Amino acid sequence: MKYFKFLAVLLIIPFVFHFSEDDKTIEELRQAKIKYPIDTLKLDNEYKNYRTTLLREECLQCGKILFANGRHAEFWFKTHHCTNDYGYTLFSFPDGQETIMEGYFCCDVYFHSDIKTQKDLRALIKKYGGRRP
């Protein structure tokens, strides 16, 4: 019986302390949100309705998406080129909600269509989230 308990513990421990690569990337993005608030960054890359910056040492792209109503969403993105997963983007919305999107973006966050509202952004996340870059 002692042998069985010992064996059971050995089999359970890896599951209890295992963090997947996905979990690691998501946690890195949550920490990046704290370490790099968007308002403290110089967003030097301008696109249609969003601004970004690249933090090379962190392999991280950060930015904000400007909505037609004057509000904005913020994002922190880690490409699949720097991880062993599809890459993830953490979006923070004006209402305080956060959404994690897996995949879709390859080397950087780039929108092929205009994102004019929070609803547009949520629809894009729902439609393309989980796709391989």
Features:
3 helices; 133 residues; single chain
Strand order of the largest sheet: 1-2-3-4-5-6
Q: Tell the overall outline.
A: globular
DSSP, total strands: 6
Q: Enumerate how many helices there are, as a single number.
A: 3
State mean pLDDT (0 to 100 scale): 87
Low-confidence stretches: 13-18
Portion in beta strands: 15-25%
Biggest sheet statistics = 6 strands, antiparallel
Distance N terminus to C terminus? 50 Å
Spell out the helices and strands N to C: HHEEEEEEH
**Total domains:** 1
Fraction of helical residues: 25-40%
Query: By helix and strand content, what is the structural category?
Result: alpha+beta
> What Rg, in angstroms, do the CA atoms define?
18 Å
Give an overview in words:
- With 133 residues, this protein is an alpha+beta fold.
- It has helices at 2-17, 21-35, 118-128, and strands at residues 45-46, 50-55, 60-66, 72-78, 88-92, 98-102.
- A six-stranded antiparallel β-sheet has the order 1-2-3-4-5-6, with helices on both faces.
- The longest helix has 16 residues, at 2-17.
- The protein is globular, with a radius of gyration of 18 Å.
